[in-house]
Amino acid sequence: MAKAKRHVAFPGRLVMVGFGSIGKGVLPLILRHIDMTPGQITIISAHEGDGRVAAEHNIEFHVKPLTQENYRDILEPRLGHGDFLLNLSVDVSSLALIKLCWERGALYLDTCIEPWAGGYFDTSVPPAMRSNYALRESALALRTSEKRPTAVLTHGANPGLVSHFVKQAMLNIAADTGRNGKRPRTRADWGRLAMDIGIKVIHIAERDTQVASRPKMPGEFVNTWSVDGFISEGSQPAELGWGSHERHWPHDGGRHEFGRGSAIYLKRPGVTTRVRTWTPLEGPFHGFLITHGESISISDYFTVAEKDKVLYRPTVHYAYHPCDDAVLSLHEYAGKNLVRQKEDRILMDEITTGIDELGVLLMGHEKGAYWYGSQLSIGEARELVPHNNATSLQVTAPVLAGMVWAIENPERGITEPDEMDFERVLDICIPYLGPVVGKYSDWTPLEGRGVLFAEDLDKDDPWQFKNIRVL
């Protein structure tokens, strides 16, 4: 392999909190593309078994699960002005870590806004307050007019990379429909472009076909990335950005009485809610409506409003079909009334074939539907970076890109993916994403409906949420 490009130099200390599949996968990328040494890095993990990869690189490794009681004692001596905290953990409050980083003058990045342990499952809290909408609002409430060290929220594959895919996809559609394909300069300009193109619905449409040599066993949850993370987000209420064009209200939908109002939630978990979607290689399929931060932030970012009146907002949601063993795991988990299996397994070395097809599907415009994204195979992922499968590399590359952007822009305070330079991020990520393609389709969520059993469908407008979800 040719000598890797160093995107940026970093003289400070890097503290990595959490060292599961994403931590192990991003470490080689950090050492390859950021000008720093292993001696600048410290890893804080909850699990002793994670230390092997750290030892390969002679990196300081500590088994110290972070709690509300001990996180300051563990992290304060390791963080100072110009340092970086990379949070890849679960069950550790993102807000607490951001506040600590600001006190110490350190940069911050996470892939998900996390609560403390138990926050996702606390039934004494109303479902609306266990949502990603509520977590996002609490994080955005930290914003201040004063300069603060950059804290990048939710910058993995999705949330994260897909926000940059959406912008590139919009420019592609604009050019292909004879509009000025010039890059908008402001958030308002992006919203006006989306409204002008006529985008009504954005799916984050993902199909993982990776297959392992050892199948899932009863009582085991198998996945191609964090089991803890997947169970947590799948057990939250299903959420989606709520478009201004929607005319039909979900029978179990709930509105939030606080915040920006860009999203709604359903009174059921994402692991029991399915939606129709489409990707170029898979074609039409049913995905799970798992709550994700990008469903809320993208819908909010592209909102066009005058005073208090919303003129335009797209409906946005995640439609995820994980690998088949993960689907079996979800089926077993849901069938046991959301009681978690006793065993976990992350598929990595035992994967024999398959791809992760991850992209954004923009629908409602004059060309129908347009999918733009990554079609990364397990074989290519292994050739590109050690300790990765196709799914993890689609996360770790944007983690690297988010770190580079934060180092280059150190005083931006709270920053969401939608507010970053999408071209800079894609420039760093694309070499690690396999084929990155754009594909038009005439598919709509009504395709194939009502064949065996008649349904009451609005044939004139296939983009209504009523016709998209699977009841």
Give a description of the structure.
The structure is a single chain. Mean pLDDT is 95; it is low at 466-471. A 7-stranded parallel beta sheet has the order 5-4-2-6-7-8-24, with helices on both faces. It has 2 domains: 8-152, Rossmann fold (3-Layer(aba) Sandwich), CATH 3.40.50; 161-391 and 422-470, homospermidine synthase like (Dihydrodipicolinate Reductase, domain 2, 2-Layer Sandwich). It is globular and about 60 Å long. It is an alpha/beta fold and 471 residues long. Helix content is 29%, strand content 25%.
Pairing-aware structural class of the strands and helices? alpha/beta
Low-confidence stretches: 466-471
* Individual helix count: 13
| The CATH homology group name of the largest domain | homospermidine synthase like
Total beta-strand segments: 26
User: What CATH architecture of the largest domain do you see?
Assistant: 2-Layer Sandwich
Number of domains: 2
- Give the overall shape: globular
Rg estimate, integer Å: 21 Å
**CATH class call of the largest domain:** Alpha Beta
- Mean pLDDT across every amino acid position: 95
In which range does the helix fraction lie? 25-40%
Strand content: 25-35%
Spatial sequence of strands, sheet with the most strands: 5-4-2-6-7-8-24
Q: CATH topology of the largest domain, what is it called?
A: Dihydrodipicolinate Reductase, domain 2
Distance between the termini: 50 Å
Note the main sheet: 7 strands, parallel
How is the topology of this model organized?
Elements: E1 8-9, E2 14-17, H1 21-33, E3 34-35, E4 41-45, H2 51-56, E5 60-63, H3 71-75, E6 84-87, H4 94-104, E7 107-110, H5 132-140, E8 151-152, H6 161-176, H7 187-197, E9 201-208, E10 211-212, E11 220-223, H8 227-235, E12 237-241, E13 253-255, E14 263-269, E15 274-279, E16 283-288, H9 293-301, E17 304-306, E18 309-312, E19 315-321, H10 324-335, E20 343-346, E21 351-353, E22 355-365, E23 368-377, H11 378-384, H12 390-408, E24 414-415, H13 422-429, E25 436-441, E26 469-470
